[in-house]
Amino acid sequence: MSVLRTPDARFEKLPGYPFAPHYVPVGSPLGGTLRMHCVDEGPRSGAPVLLVHGEPTWSYLYRKLIPILGAAGLRAIAPDHIGFGRSDKLADKTAYSFERHIAWLRELVVALDLREITLVGQDWGGPIGLGVLAQEPARFARVVVANTMLHTAEPELAGRLAWANHGVGERDTRLCESLLDWITTSQRAPEMSASAAIRGACARALPDEVAAAYDAPFPDERYKAGMRQFPILIPITRSDPGAAINRATWQALRGFRRPFLTAFSDGDPSTAGWEAVFQERVPGAGGQPHATLRGAGHFLQEDSGEELAQLVLDFALRTRSA
Q1: Is a pLDDT exceeding 90 seen at residue 31?
Q2: Is the pTM of this model over 0.90?
Q3: Which of 8, 207, 216, 282 has the most other CB atoms within 10 Å of its CB?
């Protein structure tokens, strides 16, 4: 198994992304360490906002939020998962697991000794970020979940989700065809393009230079093992290891009484319905001003980045004494 590192030149002069790189060593399945990148902007004394991306994006996704949060005195930290952005990339896709992604992000949080964290998680950033919260609950002050999910394939989810993913009876599973298509495409397509996937899930046109920035971390297919592996890690059966991880996270969230906000868009069928599940199951979601961002797709940071930034900022400031 080899470790790849995207050349720094690929990240020069990306539109809207002037941020200096920061690196944290995390454990490698090969032994030794990997280099995990994060953007770290705003005053170091500011309360940290942990902005966690998903598939197939990287910290570039949060470029519209970072300056707004930093200007308000918060410390905006946007990591790149291993396999994405400026972080190291393992060439063997089987080296990536849901458990390892949680472990890598937890190592970064602990290494930076982040406390009083406002977690913002979208797509895979939700399950991974919330997985860290389940293991380090004392570090987190509040949560914003945005177009994300926490799959367990439990039968109780029947009829709740636009993209069905739930057990039926003792041995069967009902799965939305679109979800299955995404999983199979990631494994079968001869080439996989981050920008094409992002363009297809945004409500607004993506400029060519922005699309190119999303492709910057992946010079060729060798660098895309992490991108290809994420879809196959989605728990689609009750016996999936990821379902067990998410059940443990749900158990932690059922006792989470700190402020918890949902900020979903109105144009993302892949996560529609999950906002209601979070609101019902997490005590800290009670009485919060849950938001729906109009005219935005799955990647609401692209379509409505400034609006989402203001929601996060207002929520963090309003609940800072909670």
Answers
A1: no
A2: yes
A3: 282
